[in-house]
TrEMBL record:
EC code: 4.3.3.6, 3.5.1.2
Gene responsible for this protein: pdxT
Pathway: Cofactor biosynthesis; pyridoxal 5'-phosphate biosynthesis
Function statement: Catalyzes the hydrolysis of glutamine to glutamate and ammonia as part of the biosynthesis of pyridoxal 5'-phosphate. The resulting ammonia molecule is channeled to the active site of PdxS.
Pfam families: SNO
Protein name: Pyridoxal 5'-phosphate synthase subunit PdxT
Family label: Belongs to the glutaminase PdxT/SNO family.
Annotated L-glutamine binding sites: 47-49, 106, 134-135
Length: 191
């Protein structure tokens, strides 16, 4: 079995832990850089990306997660976690981990639409997938080497670049474990 960490500075942590366990992985909570040692992959959950970034900087997690990524480990970012992984953020000067060749727009579906659910076609799956969106970002642009996995109303809401996976929606808030299972398979391949 692979061992996958969930970044736990803020946000939806326990739901990801449960989803990963249901998908056959061992799990660990990551609050400090040393807790990345021995992990095969990590999930960056939803929350508030500016708060998460501030806490990650405080605990020295920005650089250690970058190194962890460079070592070849897969990372799955959901919602705010997606924002953390983007190379650039629309209208904001300072991106965070800059791991993926994507440009994201925060709170992209408008203030009046705080949250919604939508049936999505996800490229790896034969059956539709219910996406839960909460003050969600979407992806404006992707580089050629990024594989688009899902769109909603012509906006990209999930994609993959080699060992990096992101979704604008919250897969941990349903009991459909297909996306976590997909990530666990990715982690198994890259180990
Ligand atoms: N709106 C949040 C942000 O920009 C993300 C929302 C979420 O993770 N549910 O950080």
């Amino acid at each position: 079995t692979v061992k996958i960490g969930v970044l736990a500075v803020q946000g939806a942590v326990s739901e990801h832990v449960r989803a990963l366990q249901e998908s056959g992985a061992e799990t660990a909570i990551v609050k400090r850089p040393e807790e990345l040692v021995g992990l095969d992959g990590i999930v960056l959950p939803g929350g508030e990306s500016t708060t998460m970034r501030r806490l990650m900087e405080k605990y020295g997690l920005i650089d250690t997660i970058r190194v962890f990524a460079e070592q070849g480990h897969p990372i799955f970012g959901t919602c705010a976690g997606l924002i953390l992984m983007a190379k650039s953020i629309d209208g904001e000067p300072s991106p965070h981990l800059q791991l993926m060749d994507i440009d994201v727009k925060r709170n992209a579906f408008g203030k009046q639409v705080d949250s919604f659910e939508a049936s999505l076609e996800l490229k790896p799956f034969a059956e539709p997938y219910n996406g839960v969106f909460i003050r969600a970002p979407y992806i404006n642009r992707v580089a050629k080497n990024v594989d688009v996995l899902a769109t909603y109303e012509d906006h990209i809401v999930a994609c993959r670049q080699d060992r990096f996976l992101v979704s604008a929606f919250h897969p941990e808030l349903t009991t459909d474990w297909r996306l976590h299972r997909y990530f666990v398979e990715m982690v198994t391949e890259y180990r």
